[in-house]
Amino acid sequence: MLHDERILKHKFAYFFTIIFVLCWMIFFAYNMVNIFLRGYGLKEEYNTFKIIIYVLYFLILPLLTVTFVSIFKESKKMFFYLNLSLFFMLIFHVVIFNGKYQKIQNPSTGYVFSFILLNILLVVGPVVLINYFKHIPTENEIENIGKHKE
């Protein structure tokens, strides 16, 4: 791997990205197998959002799969796919939250804050960290000898 070809700054960033994407792929694949192949279906609280949830499942899992492959291909499109899957995952979590929140008899602000905190810790935070570790190659210093940036 050439120094200019890498997409992330550190080996830790590669490891962290692979683990993050793989864990979410396993989560969505497991739920898709349970819902579609084993016939467990969705809980009654999600029946009003059934089509939206199914569409999001079929959008998020392929995006995560393409992101996972792009990590190993050293493709810069990995960041686009990762951020797009983050967007759809947040929509998915809001839909799930809305289904659960409608069923609660005593809605409290603690439930809302825990939802926001968990999404920041488990979804948004890691993606922001991965985007932070994006490798931006510096300009070649040898080619810029004698050029002044004044």
TrEMBL record:
The chain crosses the membrane at residues 12-31, 51-72, 79-99, 111-133. Keywords: Membrane, Transmembrane, Transmembrane helix. This is DUF4293 family protein.
